[in-house]
Amino acid sequence: MNIPEIFKYGTIISAPLFLGVSLLLIKRLPDFSFSKHTISKSVLFIDNRFLKTIFRLNFVIKALLDFGFVLYLANKLEITNNFIVLPLFLTPVFFISLSYFIEGKYNFWHRTLAYCSGASWIVGQVLLAFFTKNIIFIIFTIIISAAVSALTLLSILKRKVNIVVQLAYSILLYLWLLVFVFKFL
C-alpha cells in the first residue's frame, strides 16, 4: 500500500489545530478556569449544541489525522508487521474515544483512555527513536519522554491536571515530533 506524502504531516497539523480549536471554544466560556479544568472538561461548560458538536469533532479530526500519520509511518519505515506500530496505532484509537467518554460524565473511562493514549504515544516514540539508531535522538527522546511522564505523574498525584499542564506536555511532545518528522522522515 502506498500512502501519500501529505500524511507525513498529519500529526504536525493535528496538534496545533486541536489546541487552537479547543482554546477558541474555551475562551468563550465564562465559568471555565485554565488552572482548575482540562480541555476535555470544557465541553461541560458549553451550552450550544453546535459548539459541543464542534468540540467533539475536534477530537475525531485530530485522531484521524494522527491515524493517517501512523499509516504513513508504517508504510514509509516498513514497520507494518513490527511491534513498533502497535502503540502508535492504539494512540488515535484511544484519543478518538475521548470524544464520547467525556470528563465529568465518564470520569473513570475518560482518564483511562487519556492516560492510555499518552502512554502508548510515549512508548511508540521511544521505539521509533531506537528504530532510527541515532544515539543523540534516542537520548533526546528519553529526556522528552521522562519529562512528559514526570510532569503527568506529578500533576496526577497533586490532583492538578489542568490546561496549563496539558499545554506543557503537548509542547514537549510537539517539539519531539517536529524533530522526528523533519530529520528522520
Helix segment tally = 6
Radius of gyration: 16 Å
Mean pLDDT across the residues is 91
Beta-strand percentage range? under 5%
Shape: globular
Distance between the termini: 18 Å
Helix content: over 70%
- H-E order: HHHHHH
Kindly give the count of domains.
1
**Major beta-sheet overview:** none
- Category by helix and strand content: mainly alpha
> Using DSSP, what is the number of strands?
0
The low-pLDDT segments are: none
Structure, explained:
It comes from Candidatus Brennerbacteria bacterium RIFOXYD1_FULL_41_16. Keywords: Membrane, Transmembrane, Transmembrane helix. By secondary structure, the protein is mostly helical. It has one domain. It has six helices and no strands. Helix 1 runs antiparallel to helix 6 and helix 2 runs antiparallel to helix 3. It starts with 9 loop residues before the first helix and ends with a helix.
Summarize the structure.
This protein has 185 residues and is an all-alpha fold.
Topology, please?
Layout (H helix, E strand, L loop, with lengths): L9 H18 L21 H28 L8 H13 L9 H26 L2 H23 L5 H22 L1
Notable traits:
185 residues; mainly alpha; 6 helices; globular
